[in-house]
Amino acid sequence: MAVSEALGFVGLGVMGEPMCANLLRKSGKIVHGFDVMEAPLQRLSELGLKPVDNLKRIAAECDVVFLSLPSGKQVEEVCLGAEGLLAEPGRLQTIVDLSTCPASLARNLEKGLKEKGISFIDAPVARMRKAAHDGTLAIMVGGDGKILEAVRPYLSCMGTDIIHCGDIGAGQVVKALNNMIVFMNVHALAEALAIGRANGVDPAMLFEAMSMGSADSFALRNPGMKALVPDEFPEQAFPTDYALKDIRLALGLAEEGGVDARQAKATHELLVRTSEAGYAKNYYPAMIRLIEERDT
């Protein structure tokens, strides 16, 4: 693949907008953007983004297109739909999917797009919204190593750790398992906090003490200290229904591999109850409300 003269970015939501902003600031390339919402397009246009009103124009103007979309359904529609990137011939050479999707979808898309002369790699991102703003994401990549090296300079605008996990779909597998572990850790932290509070221990002191011992973790210092301790679960953070989508991907992989992931199933069940209790849009550590039976 030749060095790209223009880039595209589809999906400018909570993670996509700051990732695109870093691409604009650091890549030195023209970046075209598409989203169904007008507000992020307007904000990013102040950084130099060239907004477009349909996906066909993205494909016509860009060599490499990055996707950051809510689910596999949207990824498939954007790539192969009647109004999608391949609806008309263009200059598009490579699609990089930053979304979190089923590994099977990544494999199917790579095969189908290859037949049309388009390269595809899966590159889901990890770490929190602040890392997206700071350009310090971890990016798990599945696919051809040569394609990764061609787009690595652009991924480096958005992340500090770019890991080649293996063949196509491997990035999605690693991302799903990463998130599964985080959700399970937050489940454990929520139970520990509830037990501590029931026994008269201050939550802030509990987690501070744990951070100095072998229980220390990313989950303790971030969703633990920043959400569970202050008991704040805003809608502007990673919602319960997003967590449900991701842990279901991991459980699907477990089923395919013949693994009885009992602890992950328990966390999934708690997330289901959290969503059904009215916290579907709230930051998923709201699961503690169910553990402490504060869902009414």
Describe the protein.
The chain is α/β, with parallel strands linked by helices. The chain folds into 2 domains: 6-166, 3-Layer(aba) Sandwich (Rossmann fold); 173-291, Orthogonal Bundle (N-(1-d-carboxylethyl)-l-norvaline Dehydrogenase, domain 2). Helix content is 53%, strand content 14%. It is built from 13 helices and 9 strands. It has a 6-stranded parallel beta sheet, with helices on both faces. Strands 7-8-9 form a 3-stranded mixed beta sheet. β5 (94-97), α5 and β6 (119-122) form a beta-alpha-beta unit. α8 crosses α10 (218-228) and α11 runs antiparallel to α12. Keywords: NAD, Oxidoreductase. This is NAD(P)-dependent oxidoreductase.
Largest sheet properties: 6 strands, parallel
Give the averaged pLDDT, no decimals: 95
CATH architecture of the largest domain: 3-Layer(aba) Sandwich
- CATH superfamily of the largest domain, by name, is NAD(P)-binding Rossmann-like Domain
Looking at the structure, the CATH topology of the largest domain is Rossmann fold
The string of secondary-structure elements, in order, is: EHEHEHEHEHEEHEHEHHHHHH
- Number of separate strands: 9
What is the percentage of strand-forming residues?
A: 5-15%
> Spans with pLDDT under 50 lasting ≥5 residues?
none
Coarse structural class: alpha/beta
Strand order of the largest sheet: 3-2-1-4-5-6
> Rough shape?
globular
* Tally of structural domains: 2
Radius of gyration: 20 Å
Q: Helical proportion?
A: 40-55%
Annotation field: number of helices: 13
Quaternary state of this entry equals single chain
- Given this structure, which CATH class of the largest domain is correct? Alpha Beta
Q: Whole-Å distance between the termini?
A: 56 Å
Domain 3-hydroxyisobutyrate dehydrogenase-like NAD-binding: 169-290
Protein name: NAD(P)-dependent oxidoreductase
Keywords: NAD, Oxidoreductase
Domain 6-phosphogluconate dehydrogenase NADP-binding: 7-166
